[in-house]
Design brief:
Largest interface: A-B, 12 and 18 residues
Structural class of chain B: alpha/beta
Oligomer: heterodimer
Radius of gyration of chain A: 16 Å
Structural class of chain A: alpha+beta
Strand content of chain B: 25-35%
CATH class of chain B: Alpha Beta
Strand order of the largest sheet of chain A: 2-1-3
Order of helices and strands of chain A: EHEHE
CATH superfamily of chain B: Class I glutamine amidotransferase (GATase) domain
Largest sheet of chain A: 3 strands, antiparallel
Number of strands of chain A: 3
CATH architecture of chain B: 3-Layer(aba) Sandwich
Distance between the termini of chain B: 12 Å
CATH architecture of one domain in chain A: 2-Layer Sandwich
Shape of chain A: elongated
Helix content of chain B: 10-25%
CATH class of one domain in chain A: Alpha Beta
CATH superfamily of one domain in chain A: Phosphoribosylformylglycinamidine synthase subunit PurS
Shape of chain B: globular
CATH topology of one domain in chain A: Mth169, Chain: A
Order of helices and strands of chain B: EHEEHEHEEEEHEEEH
Helix content of chain A: 25-40%
Largest sheet of chain B: 9 strands, mixed
Strand content of chain A: 25-35%
Strand order of the largest sheet of chain B: 2-1-3-4-11-10-9-6-7
Chain lengths: 87, 223
């Protein structure tokens, strides 16, 4: 079973990578884009069903290693099938 | 006096850090990241480089290397620890120092001789400087932007824990021009610029960096 962890720079933290992507989009003519923030997505495969306990443990994993709470927000979500990109 | 220099996979400046310790009159001791224990050293340096390829975040994986458990425990008990560049990033990830380092606002790797102001001589690694002294040491980093929330920055300033500040231009977007900070007890110091590259005129821009390494010898001798 899969669990997805999404990590994003906090809104107040400068995101130079997102800014560089935004400038490139503008150069390519996609001028309707006004902001880009770049984050990370982790797809974790775990044994057995993803229950509350698993999610709580992986929340801990995310806060300890996958994200740095000083500069990043994260979200842990379970998925019964293979990991789907979030809408 | 024995100063441990940790080598992680991807460390680059462990050799120069050990050499700086030797120039200052100390005995460098090579510590491997996989060792469980940093016994037998009086201080530790976490050198620059790209530990674990900077995967995930700079310093995020090195923080959990076996040797770090001992380094963190002993640092909390007062052993001096200096983190240079990647070592600073590791100390922040390990929560021995507050804040974090993010990608330079200029979006490019910055490599230059950088002017700094030493803001405090009241740390284990800066007693041989005078507060307000201008020094020049190399800076070479892509993710050197120091960030922390406003309350943390105010506390650092109020408690005299900003150790070095960029002067004559902020090279990377660091908040309040902060180049290095100290722990509450002044024993743990992290900075992005590289004092170990400025210890003798042949190989560096001068000798301004040597003071970090002579300072810790004095600090341990009097502790």
């Amino acid at each position: 079973m899969s669990v997805v962890v999404e990590v994003m720079p906090k809104p107040e933290i400068l995101d130079p990578q997102g800014q560089a992507v935004l400038s490139a989009l503008h150069r390519l003519g996609f001028t309707e884009v006004t902001s880009v923030r770049q984050g990370k997505r982790f797809e974790l495969t775990v044994e057995g069903e993803v229950d509350e306990q698993t999610l709580a443990r992986l929340e801990q994993a995310a806060a300890t290693l996958l994200a740095n709470p000083v500069i990043e927000d994260h979200r842990v979500s379970g998925s019964s099938a293979h990991a789907e990109p979030s809408a | 006096m024995r100063v441990g220099v940790v080598t992680f996979p991807g460390s680059l400046d462990d050799g120069d850090a050990a050499r700086a310790v030797r120039y200052a009159g100390g005995v460098p001791v090579a510590l491997w990241h996989g060792e469980d224990d940093a016994r037998g050293v009086d201080a530790v340096i976490l050198p620059g480089g790209f530990s674990y390829g900077d995967y995930l975040r700079c310093g995020a994986i090195a923080r959990f290397a076996p040797v770090m458990r001992s380094v963190v425990d002993r640092a909390r008990a007062g052993m001096p620890v200096l983190g240079i560049c990647n070592g600073f990033q590791i100390l922040c990830e390990a929560h021995l120092l507050p804040g974090a380092l993010i990608r330079n606002d200029v979006r490019t790797f910055v490599c230059r001789d950088q002017a700094l102001r030493v803001e405090t001589a009241a740390t284990a690694w800066t007693v041989d400087y005078a507060a307000g002294q201008r020094i020049v040491v190399p800076l070479k980093s892509g993710e050197g932007g120091y960030v922390a929330d406003g309350a943390t920055l105010d506390r650092l300033e109020g408690e005299g824990r900003v150790v070095v500040r960029y002067v004559e231009g902020n090279p990377n977007g660091s908040m309040r021009d902060i180049a290095g900070v100290a722990s509450e007890d002044g024993r743990v110091v992290g900075l992005m610029p590289h004092p170990e590259h400025a210890i003798e005129p042949l190989t560096g821009p001068g000798t301004d960096g040597l003071g970090f390494f002579t300072s810790v010898l004095a600090s341990v001798a009097t502790a």
